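Quick illustration for those who missed Monday's session on complexes.
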Amino acid sequence: MNISESKRLFAHAQQFIPGGVNSPVRAFRAVGGDPIFIKRADGAFLFDEDGNAYIELINSWGPMILGHNHPEIREAVIQAMHEGTSFGAPTSREVEIAELITQMVPSVEKVRMVNSGTEATMSAIRVARGYTGKDKIIKMVGHYHGHGDSFLIAAGSGAVTMGHPDSPGVTQGTAKDTLLAPYNNLEAIEELVRLNKNEIAALILEPVPGNMGLVVPMPGYLEGLREICTRECIVLIFDEVMTGFRLAPGGAQELFGVTPDMTTLGKIIGGGMPVGAYGGKKEIMDFVSPAGPVYQAGTLSGNPIAMAAGLTMLRHLKTQPEIYGVLLQIGKKIAEGIQKINLELGFDYTVNHLGSMYSLFFTSEPVIDFDSAKTSNTELFGKYFQAMLHRGVYLAPSQFESLFLSTALSDDLIDRILEVHRESMIEIHK
Ligand code: KE4
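Prediction with KE4 bound:
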């Protein structure tokens, strides 16, 4: 496979951009080789600068649930461009998308738009701290909530992929207020609550984590967190940047019937444009400036072009909820197909699947938290990634990432993915 133009671009990029990329996990450091530079995308395909085509299973890390270059979203953006790109003043689309989010996401009575998932989570814990007057937060080991200082402690995703889940530059003063617990373990939360009585402002988690690979909540776990947080007056924050609008129109909180006090959103909400949001109960959100004393702001928040894309995306998902059944069938075909092939070939690897998210872990252990995810053979994953890539299937370049499927994956493409999986598994086990 000729990737000479990607190689040339990557060498050049490293003169001007740290590591040659604008987000670390894109650098392929965990899987070897140089990153592929993408020229364009359409439907289920990425096309690189050398003209190679890839069936893609990461969809920009989640946003492209309808596939790339969707005509409705493209036309909405083009139309909005004719009216100007940024005003720094309120617009009608911001009101429309806010109302739509309150209709779709059970916990959200009021919502503030920002420009990334990181901004959303940073802001949400600041508001929770301001609302409760307490300082500490609980996060789960291996969960990733963006690159805010309070979260770069035992963080997942690119932080663990690059080998620094605890980043230099995060002060002890910040780190001391972040308490850690393993996911899927209610006793650990009860212990932290006992040891930090009346000091914990918020508990933030990925309700269905994707940033250690996909892990599914044990029965009763989310309900247990809800009960503890209600009892202890701790703000329960579901970070649904990945799962929001993906697992159901109302995300994991709709799918599992557990309503947090606040929710953070991103990815799908922008239809591929830079958008994040945080929202929750009116009484909490009315603490946000200018309604309340907790300050948060943003020059491009609610940007009219991004709102045009996001509004079109969310309207599509709300008015056509049948796509979630389609996505579930696509997910089942791929995840069950992979498991069937692995068993036929005599490989006992763990596949976790939920809706349009799945992960193949190169371990035979059940993967229920970060410790079990880390039993995976990441070297073998790297070989698998490259074998799939060279056969035209583009995965997340890390064992510790969920894959994200789109409605653009036809049966023929699913058959091709499974064929390539079989060939790749045979190749890497020779
Ligand atoms: P952004 O700041 O990257 O928009 O969102 C941060 C974030 C917050 N919460 C969750 C649950 C997330 O998954 C993310 C970002 N996800 C990663 C993929 N694991 C983004 C990819 C990247 O870092 O380049």
